[in-house]
Amino acid sequence: MTTEERVRKGDVRAAARLMRDIEDGHPSARETLKRLFPNTGHAHIIGITGPPGTGKSTIVDRLIGILRKEGKTIGVLAVDPSSTLTGGAILGDRIRMQRHALDNGVFIRSVATRGHVGGVSRSTRDLVAVLDAMGKDIILIETVGAGQDEVEISHIAHTNVVVIIPGLGDGIQAIKAGILETAAIFVVNKSDLEGADSAVNDIRMLVLLRAADKTDWQPPILKTEAKANTGVVELASAVEQHGEYIKRNRSHEMRQNDLKYSFLNALRDGLFQKALAHLQTDSRMDSIMENLEKRRTDPYTAAEEAIDELLNRKSAP
After folding, report:
1. From residue 202, how far is each of 27, 66, 195, 198, 270 by CA, in Å?
2. 147 lies in the same domain as 111
């Protein structure tokens, strides 16, 4: 049985090996992804984003429990900062969600950013495709908590949940910086702390600023105490409602966006790899580096010339 056949049957070991190969950049992994593509496009993808320390992992843990009681199968990608020595994930969110480890309906994987900004790793979209092809109903992506750069999750998730806590000024600033436009649901976690109502009011005012440009979906602002499992049922309900809203009103648009960014992501990576191989094969890299060191050229011009060389080489008879 091939890897893609095992993945389609929900084989956890096959999926884990494929994910490892994707993150390591093995060419065979891309070939497997190509064959899995017809089996994707069914899962509801949920992003859990926001500044560090807001309790995102606890919220994900509680959501898993609620969704499993509803009979949903769950895939989780916990995006962690990378170790500077190994490139591997270092926070280990899977440890925090240990109680779900023996549940066959839940697949949890920590994903290293490997220096990639944007709150998600470069391979995240491909890992989502693997979980989707496995038949997972819900895919939860917990981002690294990179603040303003986390807007990138909006290109992957269908429902983006933004989490802040009372008194976290940076959280509101992050929302002002761009997450505001992508949020489907706002959560003020640790709402037992002083300033929770003030945080809700701050978000409400920010939401009103975009009301004129919004569709008929108005982002709810929920208060939770995830550790006490308070308010998370309401959050799960809001997530489900937004999923239904997407199906009724934005299903085609979402599919188009998914396909567009999948294509652009593959195009970017493919062009980079081909350009790098071309430069190394023809020993052009040494020449470029010498010209840069002696200030005969600049990085921007050098890159433009390298791209032109590659394109001209491909179009030559």
Report:
1. 48, 29, 10, 6, 43
2. yes
